[in-house]
Write a structure and sequence with these properties.
alpha+beta; Aldehyde Oxidoreductase, domain 3; 32% helix
Amino acid sequence: MAVVIRIQAEPFDTGREAAALEGEGVGAVVTFSGLVRNHSALGAVSAIDLEHYPGMTERSLAAITEQAQARWPLLGVTLIHRVGHLPAGAPIVLVAVASAHREAAFQAASFLMDYLKTQAPFWKKEWVDGVAHWVDAKDSDATAAARWTTNVTP
């Protein structure tokens, strides 16, 4: 199975990354591309700063990818997360999953994204009216991730 995990400052090409997962036996490629939101509870967001610990972050993403492989019959996974200073509207994350069947690809992509939102070691500051504010974890993200704590897939 092809697994690509990248942490990078540069933008990514969602179409090119999805096409790279197509191949023998693949019946579905599901992608999720997240963008930097232009709003938060504090007001209009102009940009975010994302930080991570090189090496630790990649190992963490590899571990969750292995968990996804154990749950679903996957044929490929691409996880790309950007770091650095990103303006509102910029692509920030890509999760792409290939499988023989759509349901496995959808579930695995959702599982991986829930993990990225709650467990991956990234730190985010939002810029609102020229002032940076650290972003706390959201209860709604933790609730979404909690559905994966059993071995039963929804």
